Amino acid sequence: MLAYINAFFFVQIAVVLGIILLKRNGAGAAVPHPPRLDAPPVAVGTWTGLREFRVIRREFADRARTQCSFYLQPADGGTLPVYKPGQFLTFALKVPGGEGDENLGEATIRRCYSLSDRPGSGSYRITIKRALAPLDRPELAPGVSSGHFHDRINVGDVLSVAAPAGKFLLETDADVPAVFVAGGVGITPLISMLRWSLEEQPGRTVHLYYGVRYGEEQAFKTELAAMAAGHPCFHLNVVYSKPGPADRQGSDFQFTGHVDLEMLRRTLPHGRHQFYICGPAPMMESLVPALVRWGVPQKDVHFEAFGPATVRLDSASATDTAALSGLPLEIRFRRSGRTLFWDGGDANLLDFAERHGVVVSSGCRSGSCGSCETGIADGAVHYEHTPDYEVRPGHCLLCVGRPESALVLEA
Known about the structure:
By secondary structure, the protein is an alpha/beta fold. The chain folds into 3 domains: 50-134 and 141-165, Beta Barrel (Elongation Factor Tu (Ef-tu), domain 3), CATH 2.40.30.10; 178-305, Rossmann fold (3-Layer(aba) Sandwich), CATH 3.40.50; 321-409, Ubiquitin-like (UB roll) (Roll). It has 8 helices and 19 strands. It has helices at 2-25, 144-152, 187-200, 221-230, 261-267, 281-294, 321-325, 349-355; strands spanning 50-60, 67-74, 88-96, 106-114, 124-129, 158-165, 178-183, 206-212, 234-240, 255-256, 274-279, 301-305, 329-333, 338-342, 373-378, 381-383, 395-397, 401-403, 407-409. The strands form 4 sheets. Strands 4-3-6-1-2-5 form a 6-stranded antiparallel β-sheet, with helices on one face. β7 (178-183), α3 (187-200) and β8 (206-212) form a beta-alpha-beta unit.
């Protein structure tokens, strides 16, 4: 009798287990569970259009208080997509009058600023230098966007932001030493690359050459010193062009002068390096071609200019049909009332316009943000590479476009 009772008991257990397994697996296939309604959103790496971000913190990056960092998080509380080191954000800003005139109402401008922190740090950080009128041109207006950030954007404010973009990216081959060369606020995309590299590739040899006028204007001074002290593969070279009375060579800075080819040749070890360069026009226009003439392969020279810098490499394809034929093309800027002639000597239509004093909006200067999008009333424009930004029909991007024919532009 006891044996029958035990058998009956085990049969019941087997039946219950069978029912549970059948419900879980069906006919041998997994049955997906419905998603939890309260599950956190999944990071997708980007978003379309503009998204609202709230400023959660702001702090000055230098003792002179000329460069201010703004920390951003999604206003909707959603996911913060991871970006690539070296990318930038594009902002749609409502500013008084568009040019700082309080009496002209509001206007919307678009500006691009590099992300200045390691991806995955929990917030987006941008660092903006207040743009003043040049010392030799005091009649020029100061920077509208930089002044707007410094004077009006505070913790709690909400900004409209496009997704991270840009092609100035760090190659991830840890066997090739990286050389970062920054001039002034050009440090911003490079410190993002540097922080990522030290975190993800601690054994990779990296060099930073960072040129500023003097110690008061050196951004991230404490941050850089801590990174150099904690990573033996990181070699920090700070260069002051005009050291102040309190600046001490050997502790505050290593070299006096400017970062140039001779300094790199004198201080870098022999062998292959990948160069990443970002800075003002004079540095970019001299150093980048000099590296190529020195023998550095173009694939190992990565650069991004800020401001109206034109970098031309000797071996680059800089001619077009108009230049080869010797027939200048008429370029008419309708709103500006200027008629000029393209001879193929400029890298793109944005450089051409700026060289002739035609004022046009610009941002990334790489075909990613759309700030320089301009209507085409007549003619055609071509691109050496398809822009990242989706250009509207009947429009062109001046920063990466070159004329195929005579043009009438709305700018």
